[in-house]
Structures are given as structure tokens and as C-alpha cells.
TrEMBL record:
Solcar repeats: 34-121, 133-218, 228-316
Family under the similarity heading: Belongs to the mitochondrial carrier (TC 2.A.29) family.
Record's bilayer topology term: Multi-pass membrane protein
Alphabetical list of Gene3D superfamilies matching this protein: Mitochondrial carrier domain
Gene name of the record: Slc25a42
Protein name: Mitochondrial coenzyme A transporter SLC25A42
GO biological process: transmembrane transport
InterPro entries documented for this protein: MCP, MCP_dom_sf, MCP_transmembrane
Amino acid sequence: MGNGVREGQVDFKRQDVEPVLSTHLPPEGNQEKKKVLNSLMSGALAGAVAKTAVAPLDRTKIMFQGESRWLLQNAEAYRLIYRTYLNEGFWSLWRGNSATMVRVIPYAAIQFCAHEEYKQLLGSYYGFQGKALTPFPRFIAGSLAGTTAAMLTYPLDMVRARMAVTPKEMYSNIVHVFIRISREEGLKTLYRGFTPTILGVIPYAGLSFFTYETLKKLHADHSGKLQPSPPERLLFGACAGLIGQSASYPLDVVRRRMQTAGVMGHTYSSILLTMQEIIREEGLIRGLYKGLSMNWVKGPIAVGISFTTFDLTQILLRKLQHSTNGER
């Protein structure tokens, strides 16, 4: 009897506990890892597709924001694009896009993945687990996601801005930009414009994600469909981009001016002084909102493509995983 009990105890430890640990705990961990990996992959693809689609407009916007009053008075955005094409060739419109990809792929991957995680955390905190968040947590989740991504990838944004406003003879590649800036202007320059970036990304990311999520929820409530169609997703994303970028645009101009100051012959020491100088030299609307009309074209397209690509990629990856699990 005594021996039987001891044998049973040994069997319990070796045969029952180990299967429990290996059968129940890893699947939960694996499920969470798959979810995070799916979000990272979907976000990376979303950012790459969206930014490549609008790269010529993006480069022109950066040049427009960083240039002088003369350019604003004598050339509209489309003329600047055409002049760049004539002087530098068709592919010059995508100059800096390699730096954009180096930045946007990790940025978008982190932002979308962080947004999914923040939604889950806030859902647990506010008691909305498994349900749509209420408006305020919805805004906070987007703001936190954008802030997290911006903080981790900012030097890459600085490099992209420099490559966009300079001739290719000045910086041959991304590594060259880092080396020259570090040697000639100091490592601190890589974070010039960081504060307005963070201040701008809070309303931009917050309103973008808030608007997109809200429109999807309203659509589901009124149509009875669980998921909107791809064209509807593009429309919702376009609205999100329009609202988010309009709200944060002046800080975007300030950020670009501070980032490109070293090569454009200006010195900007703070956000307020930069704003004051822009307003004094170019006016409030024509200075702080320079290039906004172009952004109303570029922004909605980019954000619409980004959100739609992320959602559809997520759906595709889930289906692939389910089919793989079903085969097993």
C-alpha cells in the first residue's frame, strides 16, 4: 500500500504535472507571440506600402515645409514636383525613400503592434475586455502607440528629412548621413526637433486611430456587418488621416524646420522661437500651414492605405494560421 502510494506520487509528478505544463501553458504563450508577430508583420507591410505610394508627395511636402518664402510665392506643390522631375529625373521623386523604409517599417510595426497591446491593456483596466473601447481610452491607445513608435525610431526620421531636402551629392546613403551629422554637428543633432515630434504625434496618432476605430464601430452598429469592405476601410482611413494631420500640422512644420536647419542656413533653438520666426517671416497661415493642401491629398491616401493594409494582412494571417492548425 505504502509502496503503491509512493509510486502513484512519482507517477503524478512525472506524468501528470509535466503534461499540464507542456500542454496548457505554452499554447497561451505561443498564441500571444503569434498575435504580436502578426501585428508587427502587418504593421511593417502597411507602413511600407503606404509610404512608397505617396513618396513623391512626401518628399515635396518636406521640401515645401523647409524652403523659403520665395518658393512659397513662386511655385505651388505640383510645379515643384515637375521641376524636380525635370532637373533630377523621375526616380529622384523617390529620393530618401530608402531612408523612409528604414524608418517607417520599424515605426509602423511598433505603432500598430503597440496599439493592439494598449487596446488590450486599457480594455482590461476599464473593464472592456473583448469589447470596443469607449472614446477616451480609444484616443489614449492611439496616442500611446504613436508616442512609443516615435521615441524608438526618431533618428531615422531625422535622417530621412535630411536626405529629402539635399542633393544626392551631399549624402550618398543613410550611413553617410549618420556619419556626417555625428561628425559635423554632433550626436545631439539626431534628436533635433524631437519635442515637437512627440507633441505632434499625440494628437495625430490619437485622432487617427480614434477616428478609424470609431468609424468602424459606427459602421458595424448601423450596417450589422462585423467587418467593413476594403473600399470602406480606405474611406475610414482617409478620414482618419485628414483629421489627424490637420490637427497636428503646425508642429509638423516646426519639426521639419528644426530637423533641416543645419543644411538650410537657419538656427532654431526651441519650438516657440521657431514658430515665432516662421510667423514673423512668412505669416501664421502661410508659414505654419505651408503645404497643408498637399497634405490633404497625401495624408488621407497614406493613412487609408496603411490602415487597410494592416487590417487585411491581419485577417489573411489569421486565416492562414487557422488553416494550418486545422490541417494538423
